[in-house]
Amino acid sequence: MVNLVPEIQNDPAQKEALLKALLDREKLHTTGVGDAIALPHTRTPMGGVLKRPLIAFGRQIKGVPYGALDNKPVEFLFLLASPNLTDHLAILARLSRVLRDPKVKKGLSEAIVPADIIKTIDEGEQRGSK
Q1: CATH number of the domain that residue 19 is part of
Q2: Is the Cβ–Cβ distance between 114 and 52 less than 8 Å?
Q3: Deepest in the core among 35, 60, 115, 126, taking most CB within 10 A?
Q4: CA distances from 42 to 23, 28, 107, 117, 126 (A)
Q5: What is the pLDDT averaged over residues 96-103?
């Protein structure tokens, strides 16, 4: 596993703050947007915890119950947190847009290494910008 957030790796209080923010947001309304996708994210910027945006991807092809809007299991999960609102909203919008592309979902389901995931998303963004 790659440590994507070194600034909180050894700080239990920072980890707890991030987890609490994610769970508090989920209590408001599900971040399972449907079509096998969930975009868990914090409701507020995490500037006191993070120095840069965080995106973590998880995949469970069999699907997991998530309470998604369409009541179907979630296969693709993108966790998002950011130190500021501008980046947070921009990343959330970009992810939402690119994940509508069926080729992106197919690529994500077939990805073997992290580079495959990044390539799939980059290609989806390129197709969407044309």
Answers
A1: 3.40.930.10
A2: no
A3: 35
A4: 8, 11, 26, 22, 27
A5: 94
Q: Exactly one of 40, 41, 66, 99 is catalytic; which is it? A: 41
The domain in which residue 65 lies consists of 12-128
**Which DSSP helix (H) or strand (E) runs through 78?**
strand 74-81
Asked if residue 80 lies in contact with residue 65, where contact means CB atoms within 8 angstroms, the answer is no
What is the share, in percent, of the chain residues with pLDDT greater than 70?
92
Overall size of the chain counted in residues: 130
* pLDDT at residue number 60: 95
Q: In the prediction, which pLDDT does 130 show?
A: 63
The phi, psi pair for 55, rounded to 5°, reads -130, 125
Residue 4 lies in a domain: no
Q: What is the pTM of this model?
A: 0.85
Residue 21 in this model has a pLDDT that exceeds 80: yes
Residue 41 bears catalytic tag: yes
